Amino acid sequence: MKRLKARVLLLVGDQAEITTPDRDHRDPERVPVERLVRETGIAREELPGVELVAVVGADGGLERFERA
Length: 68
Prior knowledge:
The chain is mainly β. The chain has a five-stranded antiparallel sheet with strand order 3-2-1-4-5, covered by helices on one side. The longest helix has 8 residues. The chain is globular.
C-alpha cells in the first residue's frame, strides 16, 4: 500500500476538503468529516489545517487516514 502526505484544508458542512501530492487546492479530495474523526481520533474542530497520512488502496482510492 502506498502512503501519501495529506492535509485538511477546510470543512464544508459534513465534508472535509483534503489535499495530497496528487490533488491540490484546486481539486481537493472530499471525505466525510465523521470518517476522519473515526479513523484519526482528531476532534472535528481541530481538523482544519491538520497534516495526515492517507493510505492508498490497490484501486487508487484513499483507503484510510492516520495521524501524521
